[in-house]
Amino acid sequence: MSAHMVHMAMMGLLVSVAAPTLLLVLARIAPRLDRWTVPAAVVLPGFVLLHAAVTVWDHSARLPPLLDAAMPVAMLGGAVLFWAPVLGARHRLPDTGRTLYLYTAMPLLDLAGVWLVVVGDSAGGLSMIAGMLPLGVIAVVVTWNWIHREERRAVAEEPAHSADGPAYDTAALSAVEGGTSMGVHTRTEFPPREGRARGGRGREARSRDHRHREHRLQDHRHRDRTW
C-alpha cells in the first residue's frame, strides 16, 4: 500500500471516525461548544462542498507545507460540524431526520472518491471510499436504534390502551344509563319502557275482559236459576 493510498484512507477515516469521536469527547468536556453548531440544512451542503474542494485541491495542486497541513484540520473541523445534527444537542435531529441525513450524505460525500477514480487515481479514490465505510455503519446503527425505540414505545403504549378500554366502556354505559349518550338512549332505554308499558296495558285489558266474562257468566247462571 502506497503512502498516497494511506493518506486518502486517512482522509476518509477523518470524516467517518475521528470527527464523531472528537464531537462526543467535546460534548463531555466542553458542552458549551455545542452553541457554535449550525442546522443540518446548512452544514450538509456546506460540508459536501468543503469535502469535495479539499479532495480536488489536494489532488490537483502542489500546496505549500503550511497549507497542506491545514487541509486535514479544515476537513476535521467541517466534519465535526457535519456530525453535530446526529450526535450533538442543540441542533440534534429526531430519529427520522438523523437517518435521512446520514443516508443522504453518504452518496454525496462519496462523489469526491468517484471523481478521483474517474480522473485516473483509482487507488486514491477507492481508498477514500473505503475510509468512509464507517459512516454507513453508523447510519445502520442509528436506524436500528430508531426502530428499536419505536418498538419499545409501541409496547409501552399497549397497556395504556388496554387500561383505557374498560374505563371508556364504563363511561359509555354510564352515559347511556343516564340518557346522555348522543341519542343512544332513545334506542336503549325508551323501547324497553314502552314495551313494559304496552305489556302492562295488555295485562290490564285482559284482566278487564276476564272480569267482564265472569260477570256475563254470573248473569247467565242467575237467569238460569230464575227460569
From TrEMBL:
<protein>
    <submittedName>
        <fullName>Cytochrome c oxidase assembly factor CtaG</fullName>
    </submittedName>
</protein>
<feature type="transmembrane region" description="Helical">
    <location>
        <begin position="126"/>
        <end position="147"/>
    </location>
</feature>
<keyword id="KW-0812">Transmembrane</keyword>
<feature type="transmembrane region" description="Helical">
    <location>
        <begin position="38"/>
        <end position="57"/>
    </location>
</feature>
<keyword id="KW-1133">Transmembrane helix</keyword>
<keyword id="KW-0472">Membrane</keyword>
<feature type="compositionally biased region" description="Basic residues">
    <location>
        <begin position="208"/>
        <end position="227"/>
    </location>
</feature>
<feature type="transmembrane region" description="Helical">
    <location>
        <begin position="100"/>
        <end position="120"/>
    </location>
</feature>
<feature type="region of interest" description="Disordered">
    <location>
        <begin position="182"/>
        <end position="227"/>
    </location>
</feature>
<feature type="compositionally biased region" description="Basic and acidic residues">
    <location>
        <begin position="186"/>
        <end position="207"/>
    </location>
</feature>
<feature type="transmembrane region" description="Helical">
    <location>
        <begin position="6"/>
        <end position="26"/>
    </location>
</feature>
<feature type="transmembrane region" description="Helical">
    <location>
        <begin position="69"/>
        <end position="88"/>
    </location>
</feature>
